[in-house]
Amino acid sequence: MKKIKSKDDYPLSRVPLNGKLPTWKVMVVRLGGLSSLPVLMVGLTLGYGLTFWQGFWAFFFGSIILQLVGWALGTIAAREGLSSSLLSRWSGFGNFGSALIGLVIAVSTIGWFGIQNSIFANGLFKATGFFNFEIWSILTGLVLTFLVVYGVRFLSMTANIALPLFVFGTIYALTEMLIGTSLTDLINSSPPGQLIPMSKAITMVAGSFIIGAVITPDMCRFVHTGKDVFWICLISTFLGELGFGMIGVLMSHAARSADVDVIMLSFSGIFGALMVVFSTVKSNNLNLYSASLGITNFFDVVIKIKLSRAAVTLFVGFIGTILSVVGVIGFFTSFLILLAEAIPPIVGIIVIDYYVLMRHRKVLDDSRIKGRLPDMVEVCNPIAILAWSIGFVVGRYVTDFGIPVTNSLVVGGLVYLIAMKLYAIIFSKKEVEFKMVDML
Q: How far apart are CA 247 and CA 238, in angstroms?
């Protein structure tokens, strides 16, 4: 295969040992992605419909789901040095299945990029009073795009700056909020709005950020071991998501509102708008980075073109920027929710294939020693596509039992496992393997 230059962040190859990064650098990037405005907004929404302790348990159980998903996938990535979409080629989905996953990840993360770029631009407009929303959207979208072009090392640099600023801004807003208010009274206060069922609340936490857990390999392929991944996921998930989510719950109770603009301006004025800006910089960089990896894999499989990740970043950044400028992104939210329901079964299938069936572990092990990808790959695994579809249907329509995100994840994995075993029995195969093609 054509060797990919390291400055392109290995979108279609393994991360070699000399391309690995210190664990703390990856930790900061992931923590920056979870210590963000979307987490705060989910906290505000939950706080509006839950008590403080109900909000805590919703975030706690939702975070456990994300921790397990991130750890399972990130550990594979650390071992194999592969991104999420590339990993799925040899973990259940085959060549075309991985292209579809890459496209789903890209569409979802481009959508989040557009939404957060709108928030970013609106924050700067309110903070400065200059220009208008549309001009700021173009400027912020282009700046974020060019930051991501430089790759994961530059993401780490921007997170090192933006994360402390965001934390400081949040502490400032929290301090202003508590002036003249009893923390005990806030904790014990009733929810301002209509009560949210607990199963729905947990689904909101896990479902809103399941895409972040699924793209964990995009960052964790740069660390060395599963132990590194465990601590990265544990600290970033519980400190970032649980911590900032509960701050959002408290803010919602104090302001008796779930409107982030009203709350941030009322508690911290211009500083609140700037905090929104710092939050968006670090989380949106990660959105665009994963989108570029997914699109690169899609073009490699479907059109047989190996594009530069930097070039793809410019393309997807332009699309996300245009969406935010014209306002189409406002209609994109429902589609993002649909994607969130479709994503969990992917996790179940990859985990079952890699850890339980281990169909391609030998070729992965052999090729890893040589520092390259396996020479052969399945064209497509129809059983994986079927299991994915069933898991999606269960997650979308079975809402009266359990937690939809967990339901779709578990059902997708179990259907895949059972169907693969039955296929092997029916066709008298020791190991199920569909048509293979040469990667070269």
A: 13
Average pLDDT over the chain, rounded to an integer: 83
Vertex 107: Cα angle to 106 and 109 (nearest 5): 65
Ramachandran quadrant class, 140 (left: phi over 0; alpha: psi -120 to 50; beta: rest): alpha
Q: Which residues are CB-neighbours of 104 under 8 A, at least 6 positions away?
A: 294, 339, 342, 343, 346
* pTM of the predicted model as reported, rounded to 2 decimal places: 0.83
3-state secondary structure of 2: coil
Best CA proximity match to 101, nearest among 92, 18, 416, 423 = 92
Nearest alpha carbon to residue 46 among 207, 185, 163, 173: 207
Q: What is the rounded average pLDDT of the residues 295-320?
A: 83
Domains, in order of start, for the chain: 13-434 (1.10.4160.10)
* Strand 376-378 with 436-438, pairing: antiparallel
- The helix/strand count (H/E) of the chain reads as 20, 2
What CA–CA distances, in Å, run from 393 to 98, 160, 206, 399, 405? 20, 40, 17, 11, 11
Partners of residue 436 on adjacent β-strands: 378
Residue type, 395: G
Q: How far is the CA of 376 from the CAs of 77, 101, 367, in angstroms?
A: 19, 19, 10
- For the segment 107-163, what is each residue's pLDDT rounded down to a tens digit? 888 887 887 788 778 777 877 778 888 998 899 888 878 877 765 566 666 666 666
Number of CB atoms found within 10 A of residue 259's CB: 14
